[in-house]
# Entry
Amino acid sequence: MECVLVRCRSCPCSQDDARRLGCIAAFDRFFRLGFGRAVLDRATLTKVSDFYIASKSVLHAVPVRTLDFGTGQDTLRCYTRAKIIDMVFFQEGYKRTGRVRR
# Structure
């Protein structure tokens, strides 16, 4: 599924619809901390959309493939752009807590 964040400004889908369709980030604790927004509302969706538009060339430059945990090899399936955005801000939020990954 192509990232549809750019449509969220004008699309009629509700925030719950957007979550179910997978076109927004998970919006968990670390994402919120990394992204700097605590509430999932239209303003936040607009900010995510603005980030997507500003980063579009980087996000589309190279497909990021999922990993087969059994073999350790890349699969043919790619992460969605929304998932990549989620991972970026999750990591940023995680770093801001001062935790160290082991």
Summary: The chain has four helices and two strands. The beta strands are 65-67, 74-78. The chain has one domain: 5-96.
